Amino acid sequence: MARPAGKVEKNAEQTPTAARRGIQSIEVGFRILDVIRKTGRPMPLKEIADACELTVPNVHYYLVSFQKVGVVQQHADTGHYGLGPYALRLGLAALEQFDVFTTARPIMAEVAAITGHTVFLGVWGNKGPTIVYRVEGSRSRPLLELRVGSVLPLLSSALGRNFLAHLPEASTRELLEQEMASSVPEGHGGAAGNSYTPRDVQAIRDEVRKHRLSRCRDALLPHFTSLSAPIFDMLGEMKAAITLMGPVGAIDDDLQSDTARLLSEKARSISATAGWVEPQAR
After folding, report:
1. What's the CA gap between 235 and 5, in Å, rounded?
2. For the chain, N or C: smaller number of CB within 10 Å?
């Protein structure tokens, strides 16, 4: 029996073209929400419309629907529109569901493939900076000294310096005092540079915060260098870091190098997945 003319064998929603096209009205709606989010305060209707480059009636149509589901609320005293209670619940749910380990793994594999060197994921554990995952590069030997579960120092590792710079000082104070007390002052049989003064510590913090990237050479392992980029959550708190490590000379560890930029960009992409927004873009 012949099929009726014009009948489509496959549901249009299953076609690749339809999947790519998406639903334009949803995209427009989230454009409106993003304007309210970025402004950081309740806004009058016309200001929202101007920022979105849409007509006032069109924006009002969306805002009425958003109010019904609680994503947007209108303030009774001013008539301005701000994010509603359901938007807050969505944000909190996203924060709870974010898994830095799952998000970071494919990105770390990409960095290791591009650079050819080992990449670590580190978090702040109960004993300090701790490696929780690693991806081997193809160009350098396996770093057997640094296994999953290894706890690294604050001052003589790129991962540790990242936490030193970005965590509250109260969180790192005890470990920092232990490391400074055990360092060997110059002229007492220790190698030059093993002793850290409070001024040295502050200089490390300042440099890491300035570049949002830490570097450590010939410290954790002889003849090795490392770069570490922080991962932030939606509240701007550092949750983890990805660290690239390889032989001195094999990695361009200049903080303005292509390698450093790659690592920073990948860490920012993980942070963005967690809801973090670049300070200059707020």
Report:
1. 57
2. N
